[in-house]
Amino acid sequence: MNRERVHILFFPFMAQGHMIPILDMAKLFARRGAKSTLLTTLINAKILEKPIEAFKDQNPDLEIGIKILNFPCVELGLPEGCENRDFINSYQKSDSGDLFLKFLFSTKYMKQQLESFIETTKPSALVADMFFPWATESAEKFGVPRLVFHGTSSFALCCSYNMRIHKPHKKVASSSTPFVIHGLPGDIVITEDQANVADEETPFGKFWVEVRESETSSFGVLVNSFYDMESAYADFYRSFVAKSCWHIGPLSLSNREFAEKAGRGKKANIDEQECLKWLDSKTPGSVVYLSFGSGTGLPNKQLLEIAFGLEGSGQNFIWVVSKNENQGENEEWLPKGFEERTIGKGLIIRGWAPQVLILDHKSIGGFVTHCGWNSTMEGIAAGLPMVTWPMGAEQFYNEKLLTKVLRIGVNVGATELVKKGKLVSREEVEKAVREVIIGEEAEERRIRAKKLGEMAKTVVEEGGSSYNDVGKFMEELNGQN
Ligand code: UDP
């Protein structure tokens, strides 16, 4: 049969946590013979350019490119250059989430440009971020299938579906009263504070309803996860929520070469070779890696607790302190003499770390994570047990998956969203860090995590379930065209 080449447009929300996995996906499909085009604004295109160039250098025959969309921040009432969610903290020192909302709603400005690009290029499919619910209509206008990318697990998607349908949080005494998420396999217990349910009367809540509607009305959903890891939830999701869905992860495993792994997201604030050399000098499985994603900025008081907790634990560590946190010349977030006392034992990366390179190193024995889904999948793919420290978004659901379903996580003790201001104490940090590395339970957790990591690597190879789902998805697109 003579088929036209599949051409997929990828339209990521402008934030590292969304652009990184969508670029991984664009590379994955290019490797499988598709033409991949990423749509984004100028500043974000600059962020993506380098990793795309690195990929093209390695794979000159594969087709991947960027199309730039106009996003006039000032005209839209945003600060100049405010083209990425991760910049918002630097514009918004004392404000609430208003700037984020404005940014989120402003993205609709790109609708017309998206439509004219679809009309002229006639792609096989549009993979658009869940934050662009309006993109379904844009694609439909031209008979192009729209796929949703949520950037999270089937497990979390099922949790939020059941919360929406059964509203168990409305039937308990308070927002901190635990309840079982009704209708979901596995008796998952959570509180309203943790579930982070948007009030449907607020602007964000209304937007969220649109997101959910586009999830069911779109052609299907692509999930950065693999079937065997969460089969009960993948089946549930397929049966009750999305029309179709394909589990094609872990997407981070699309990065094969050193340069690809090292250049993921931003330029690292540490020499990658130096970092690996430091890890080489440590015993296998002895180092804890702490990172809380691309956007989270913890207050100084919390960073101090982490520092004391790490020191108290006596374990080796690499601690990433993001730009949002590492502010002010005096570094008040660091106890006096901390780095001198932990020399040889610990490494602080101020800014951006080459996370997947670090996680893949044999000296890493545990990952303290905020349970952002990319980090969670990267930890799983690296076969690591984790200390779970959810802070916002759907991260408490991800924590439940790690601690209760997969049983590869130790809960640090976070009970509510970080914005509520409750600190995790140094004692809790110390205990969780020791627990993930030392003892019989740690060993059992490590064995389970290692098995899962091996599975993750197998499913993306030829004949594996994620590999096959990519194939099935492309077949389906061919059938559409
Ligand atoms: N990341 C990284 N270096 C850092 C911080 C983050 O490479 O110093 C990457 C990480 O590997 C992941 C993404 O940024 O791919 C963060 O996504 P996640 O879903 O974990 O969290 P978010 O930033 O969306 O909260």
Automatic annotation (TrEMBL):
Keywords: Glycosyltransferase, Transferase
InterPro entries the record matches: UDP_glucos_trans (IPR002213), UDP_glycos_trans_CS (IPR035595)
Enzyme Commission no: 2.4.1.-
GO molecular function: UDP-glucosyltransferase activity
Domain of life: Eukaryota
Keyword Transferase assigned: yes
Matching PROSITE patterns: UDPGT
Any Pfam family: UDPGT
Record-stated family: Belongs to the UDP-glycosyltransferase family.
Name under which the protein is recorded: Glycosyltransferase
The organism of origin for this protein: Arabidopsis thaliana x Arabidopsis arenosa
The organism's taxonomic lineage, starting at the top: Eukaryota, Viridiplantae, Streptophyta, Embryophyta, Tracheophyta
